[in-house]
Design a protein that fits this description.
alpha/beta; about 300 residues; 5-stranded parallel β-sheet; 7-stranded mixed β-sheet; oxidoreductase; 17 strands; 2 domains
Length: about 300
Amino acid sequence: MNVLDCIVIGGGPAGLSASLTLGRARRNIALFDDGTNRNRVTQASNGFITRDGIKPQAFKEIARKELENYPSVSFINATVTEIIKENEQFTVKTSTNQEFVSEKILLATGIQEIFSIPSIRKFYGKSLFSCPYCDGWEQQEKQLVVIAEKEEHVLHLTKLIYNWSQDLIVLTNGVQLSIEGQTELQKHNIKIIAEKIKDLIGNDGYLESIEFETGASINRTAGFVAPSYYRPNHFAEKLGCEMDEEGKVITDHVGRTTQKNVYIAGETERSKPSSLMISAAKGNKAAVSVITDLIMERF
Protein backbone atom coordinates (compact mmCIF):
# COMPACT_ATOMS: atom_id res chain seq x y z
CA MET A 1 0.00 0.00 0.00
CA ASN A 2 1.36 3.42 -0.98
CA VAL A 3 1.93 5.76 1.94
CA LEU A 4 0.45 9.20 1.32
CA ASP A 5 2.11 12.39 2.47
CA CYS A 6 -1.09 13.66 4.06
CA ILE A 7 -4.74 12.76 4.40
CA VAL A 8 -7.16 15.67 4.66
CA ILE A 9 -10.47 14.80 6.32
CA GLY A 10 -13.30 17.18 5.47
CA GLY A 11 -14.07 18.85 2.15
CA GLY A 12 -15.37 22.22 3.32
CA PRO A 13 -13.49 25.48 2.66
CA ALA A 14 -10.70 24.58 5.12
CA GLY A 15 -10.09 21.12 3.67
CA LEU A 16 -10.40 22.28 0.06
CA SER A 17 -8.01 25.18 0.61
CA ALA A 18 -5.51 22.92 2.37
CA SER A 19 -5.72 20.37 -0.45
CA LEU A 20 -5.06 23.05 -3.08
CA THR A 21 -1.97 24.26 -1.23
CA LEU A 22 -0.73 20.70 -0.71
CA GLY A 23 -1.33 19.82 -4.34
CA ARG A 24 0.59 22.85 -5.55
CA ALA A 25 3.48 21.70 -3.34
CA ARG A 26 3.47 18.33 -5.15
CA ARG A 27 2.36 16.40 -2.08
CA ASN A 28 0.59 13.07 -2.55
CA ILE A 29 -2.64 13.49 -0.63
CA ALA A 30 -6.19 12.20 -0.34
CA LEU A 31 -9.12 14.46 0.52
CA PHE A 32 -12.10 12.74 2.18
CA ASP A 33 -15.58 14.27 2.16
CA ASP A 34 -19.05 12.85 2.81
CA GLY A 35 -21.16 15.90 1.95
CA THR A 36 -22.26 16.71 5.51
CA ASN A 37 -20.77 20.21 5.55
CA ARG A 38 -22.73 22.57 7.81
CA ASN A 39 -23.56 25.13 5.12
CA ARG A 40 -25.21 22.59 2.80
CA VAL A 41 -28.63 23.95 3.88
CA THR A 42 -27.67 27.52 2.96
CA GLN A 43 -29.13 29.08 -0.17
CA ALA A 44 -26.11 31.33 -0.74
CA SER A 45 -22.66 31.79 0.77
CA ASN A 46 -21.96 35.48 1.19
CA GLY A 47 -18.89 37.56 1.94
CA PHE A 48 -16.22 35.51 0.15
CA ILE A 49 -14.48 37.89 -2.22
CA THR A 50 -15.07 36.98 -5.94
CA ARG A 51 -17.70 34.42 -4.85
CA ASP A 52 -20.24 36.59 -3.00
CA GLY A 53 -23.67 34.93 -3.10
CA ILE A 54 -22.50 31.62 -4.53
CA LYS A 55 -24.42 28.46 -3.68
CA PRO A 56 -22.38 26.21 -1.31
CA GLN A 57 -22.51 23.25 -3.68
CA ALA A 58 -21.30 25.39 -6.57
CA PHE A 59 -18.45 26.65 -4.38
CA LYS A 60 -17.40 23.07 -3.67
CA GLU A 61 -17.68 22.05 -7.31
CA ILE A 62 -15.44 24.91 -8.46
CA ALA A 63 -12.86 24.02 -5.82
CA ARG A 64 -13.02 20.33 -6.71
CA LYS A 65 -12.54 21.20 -10.39
CA GLU A 66 -9.47 23.27 -9.55
CA LEU A 67 -7.99 20.36 -7.61
CA GLU A 68 -8.17 18.20 -10.75
CA ASN A 69 -5.25 20.27 -12.10
CA TYR A 70 -2.99 18.61 -9.53
CA PRO A 71 -2.50 14.88 -10.21
CA SER A 72 -1.11 14.17 -6.73
CA VAL A 73 -4.50 15.03 -5.16
CA SER A 74 -7.13 12.29 -4.88
CA PHE A 75 -10.72 12.85 -3.79
CA ILE A 76 -12.50 10.13 -1.83
CA ASN A 77 -16.27 10.43 -1.37
CA ALA A 78 -16.63 8.49 1.88
CA THR A 79 -17.02 8.94 5.62
CA VAL A 80 -13.90 8.32 7.70
CA THR A 81 -14.86 6.01 10.55
CA GLU A 82 -11.53 5.41 12.27
CA ILE A 83 -7.96 6.70 12.40
CA ILE A 84 -5.31 4.38 13.86
CA LYS A 85 -1.79 5.58 14.62
CA GLU A 86 0.93 2.95 14.31
CA ASN A 87 4.69 3.43 14.00
CA GLU A 88 4.53 7.13 13.10
CA GLN A 89 1.95 6.45 10.41
CA PHE A 90 -1.83 6.68 10.28
CA THR A 91 -4.27 4.15 8.91
CA VAL A 92 -7.57 5.71 7.90
CA LYS A 93 -10.63 3.47 7.57
CA THR A 94 -13.79 4.49 5.75
CA SER A 95 -17.46 3.61 5.66
CA THR A 96 -16.83 1.93 2.30
CA ASN A 97 -14.35 -0.52 3.92
CA GLN A 98 -11.32 1.09 2.35
CA GLU A 99 -8.02 1.72 4.13
CA PHE A 100 -5.42 4.39 3.43
CA VAL A 101 -2.05 5.03 5.07
CA SER A 102 -0.50 8.45 5.52
CA GLU A 103 2.40 10.16 7.25
CA LYS A 104 0.28 13.10 8.36
CA ILE A 105 -3.36 13.84 9.11
CA LEU A 106 -5.15 17.16 8.69
CA LEU A 107 -8.54 17.35 10.43
CA ALA A 108 -11.02 19.73 8.82
CA THR A 109 -14.35 18.05 9.55
CA GLY A 110 -15.98 21.19 10.95
CA ILE A 111 -18.85 21.36 13.41
CA GLN A 112 -22.62 20.89 13.45
CA GLU A 113 -25.51 22.77 15.08
CA ILE A 114 -27.81 21.72 17.91
CA PHE A 115 -31.18 23.45 18.26
CA SER A 116 -33.15 23.38 21.51
CA ILE A 117 -36.32 23.85 19.42
CA PRO A 118 -36.31 21.05 16.81
CA SER A 119 -38.62 22.83 14.34
CA ILE A 120 -35.96 25.52 13.79
CA ARG A 121 -34.19 22.98 11.60
CA LYS A 122 -37.01 23.18 9.01
CA PHE A 123 -36.33 26.88 8.42
CA TYR A 124 -32.58 27.03 8.98
CA GLY A 125 -30.72 28.36 5.95
CA LYS A 126 -33.82 29.73 4.20
CA SER A 127 -35.51 32.10 6.65
CA LEU A 128 -33.66 31.56 9.94
CA PHE A 129 -29.92 32.15 10.15
CA SER A 130 -27.14 32.19 12.71
CA CYS A 131 -24.62 34.64 11.23
CA PRO A 132 -25.63 38.26 10.59
CA TYR A 133 -22.37 38.90 8.72
CA CYS A 134 -23.34 36.13 6.29
CA ASP A 135 -27.06 36.86 5.92
CA GLY A 136 -27.79 40.24 7.51
CA TRP A 137 -27.68 42.18 4.24
CA GLU A 138 -30.50 40.11 2.76
CA GLN A 139 -32.64 40.63 5.90
CA GLN A 140 -32.09 44.37 6.25
CA GLU A 141 -35.09 46.45 7.39
CA LYS A 142 -37.27 43.35 7.76
CA GLN A 143 -39.35 42.47 10.80
CA LEU A 144 -37.03 39.96 12.42
CA VAL A 145 -37.13 37.55 15.33
CA VAL A 146 -34.11 36.68 17.48
CA ILE A 147 -34.27 33.28 19.19
CA ALA A 148 -31.68 32.70 21.90
CA GLU A 149 -31.75 31.37 25.45
CA LYS A 150 -28.50 32.31 27.18
CA GLU A 151 -28.46 35.98 28.16
CA GLU A 152 -24.98 36.54 26.77
CA HIS A 153 -26.12 35.12 23.41
CA VAL A 154 -29.34 37.15 23.47
CA LEU A 155 -27.54 40.44 24.03
CA HIS A 156 -24.65 39.79 21.66
CA LEU A 157 -26.78 38.55 18.75
CA THR A 158 -29.48 41.20 19.17
CA LYS A 159 -26.96 44.04 19.25
CA LEU A 160 -25.34 42.72 16.06
CA ILE A 161 -28.62 42.29 14.18
CA TYR A 162 -29.79 45.77 15.20
CA ASN A 163 -27.20 47.02 12.69
CA TRP A 164 -29.31 45.62 9.82
CA SER A 165 -32.84 45.99 11.21
CA GLN A 166 -34.28 47.79 14.22
CA ASP A 167 -37.64 45.97 14.03
CA LEU A 168 -36.76 43.10 16.38
CA ILE A 169 -38.61 40.77 18.72
CA VAL A 170 -36.45 38.68 21.04
CA LEU A 171 -37.66 35.21 22.11
CA THR A 172 -35.88 33.55 25.04
CA ASN A 173 -37.94 30.32 25.13
CA GLY A 174 -38.81 30.42 28.81
CA VAL A 175 -35.64 32.10 30.09
CA GLN A 176 -36.00 35.34 32.09
CA LEU A 177 -33.37 37.94 31.31
CA SER A 178 -31.84 39.96 34.11
CA ILE A 179 -33.30 43.41 34.80
CA GLU A 180 -30.12 44.90 33.35
CA GLY A 181 -30.43 42.80 30.19
CA GLN A 182 -34.08 43.67 29.71
CA THR A 183 -33.40 47.37 30.21
CA GLU A 184 -30.55 47.35 27.69
CA LEU A 185 -32.84 46.00 24.95
CA GLN A 186 -36.02 47.82 25.87
CA LYS A 187 -34.35 51.22 25.69
CA HIS A 188 -34.04 50.49 21.95
CA ASN A 189 -37.75 49.53 21.75
CA ILE A 190 -36.90 45.85 21.33
CA LYS A 191 -39.71 43.63 22.57
CA ILE A 192 -38.78 40.59 24.69
CA ILE A 193 -41.03 37.53 24.96
CA ALA A 194 -39.94 34.99 27.56
CA GLU A 195 -42.74 32.46 26.98
CA LYS A 196 -41.86 28.89 25.98
CA ILE A 197 -42.03 28.30 22.25
CA LYS A 198 -44.41 25.54 21.13
CA ASP A 199 -43.74 25.48 17.39
CA LEU A 200 -42.60 27.39 14.33
CA ILE A 201 -45.05 27.53 11.45
CA GLY A 202 -44.33 27.96 7.75
CA ASN A 203 -43.91 26.24 4.39
CA ASP A 204 -40.94 24.98 2.39
CA GLY A 205 -38.43 26.47 4.82
CA TYR A 206 -40.00 29.91 4.98
CA LEU A 207 -41.22 31.05 8.37
CA GLU A 208 -44.70 32.53 8.81
CA SER A 209 -45.44 32.56 12.53
CA ILE A 210 -44.31 31.34 15.95
CA GLU A 211 -46.66 29.73 18.46
CA PHE A 212 -46.17 29.75 22.24
CA GLU A 213 -47.28 27.20 24.81
CA THR A 214 -49.72 29.78 26.20
CA GLY A 215 -51.62 29.70 22.91
CA ALA A 216 -50.43 33.13 21.80
CA SER A 217 -48.55 33.60 18.52
CA ILE A 218 -46.64 36.23 16.56
CA ASN A 219 -46.11 36.71 12.83
CA ARG A 220 -42.50 36.87 11.66
CA THR A 221 -41.05 35.71 8.36
CA ALA A 222 -37.31 35.73 9.10
CA GLY A 223 -34.79 35.97 11.90
CA PHE A 224 -31.65 34.77 13.59
CA VAL A 225 -30.98 32.00 16.10
CA ALA A 226 -28.14 31.09 18.46
CA PRO A 227 -27.44 27.36 18.14
CA SER A 228 -25.07 25.27 20.21
CA TYR A 229 -22.27 23.54 18.31
CA TYR A 230 -20.44 20.23 18.54
CA ARG A 231 -17.79 18.27 16.67
CA PRO A 232 -19.40 15.43 14.73
CA ASN A 233 -16.51 13.10 15.60
CA HIS A 234 -13.83 12.63 18.25
CA PHE A 235 -10.79 12.15 16.03
CA ALA A 236 -8.79 14.91 17.72
CA GLU A 237 -9.43 13.49 21.19
CA LYS A 238 -8.74 9.89 20.14
CA LEU A 239 -5.45 10.91 18.53
CA GLY A 240 -4.39 12.48 21.83
CA CYS A 241 -4.60 16.16 20.88
CA GLU A 242 -4.70 18.37 23.96
CA MET A 243 -7.72 20.60 24.56
CA ASP A 244 -8.12 23.72 26.66
CA GLU A 245 -10.80 24.16 29.33
CA GLU A 246 -13.31 25.34 26.68
CA GLY A 247 -12.78 22.31 24.45
CA LYS A 248 -10.66 24.13 21.88
CA VAL A 249 -7.89 22.07 20.34
CA ILE A 250 -4.55 23.53 21.41
CA THR A 251 -2.40 24.48 18.42
CA ASP A 252 0.60 26.63 17.52
CA HIS A 253 -1.86 28.90 15.63
CA VAL A 254 -0.73 27.57 12.24
CA GLY A 255 -2.40 24.18 12.39
CA ARG A 256 -0.02 22.00 14.38
CA THR A 257 -1.64 20.23 17.33
CA THR A 258 0.20 18.90 20.37
CA GLN A 259 0.35 15.51 18.65
CA LYS A 260 3.17 15.14 16.13
CA ASN A 261 1.91 14.81 12.55
CA VAL A 262 -1.69 15.73 13.45
CA TYR A 263 -2.88 19.09 12.10
CA ILE A 264 -6.22 20.86 12.31
CA ALA A 265 -7.97 23.63 10.39
CA GLY A 266 -11.22 25.55 10.21
CA GLU A 267 -14.12 25.26 12.62
CA THR A 268 -12.86 21.90 13.92
CA GLU A 269 -10.21 23.67 15.98
CA ARG A 270 -12.45 26.06 17.93
CA SER A 271 -15.80 24.24 17.83
CA LYS A 272 -17.25 27.63 16.94
CA PRO A 273 -18.56 28.91 13.61
CA SER A 274 -16.44 30.96 11.23
CA SER A 275 -16.78 32.39 7.75
CA LEU A 276 -15.78 30.62 4.55
CA MET A 277 -12.89 33.03 4.15
CA ILE A 278 -11.48 32.48 7.62
CA SER A 279 -11.82 28.70 7.32
CA ALA A 280 -10.11 28.74 3.92
CA ALA A 281 -7.27 30.85 5.32
CA LYS A 282 -6.80 28.43 8.20
CA GLY A 283 -6.74 25.55 5.74
CA ASN A 284 -3.95 27.28 3.83
CA LYS A 285 -1.96 27.89 7.03
CA ALA A 286 -2.27 24.30 8.19
CA ALA A 287 -1.23 23.00 4.77
CA VAL A 288 1.86 25.20 4.80
CA SER A 289 2.77 23.71 8.19
CA VAL A 290 2.37 20.19 6.79
CA ILE A 291 4.51 21.02 3.74
CA THR A 292 7.20 22.74 5.81
CA ASP A 293 7.45 19.80 8.20
CA LEU A 294 7.67 17.27 5.36
CA ILE A 295 10.39 19.28 3.62
CA MET A 296 12.46 19.75 6.77
CA GLU A 297 12.13 16.10 7.79
CA ARG A 298 13.26 14.85 4.41
CA PHE A 299 15.91 17.38 3.49
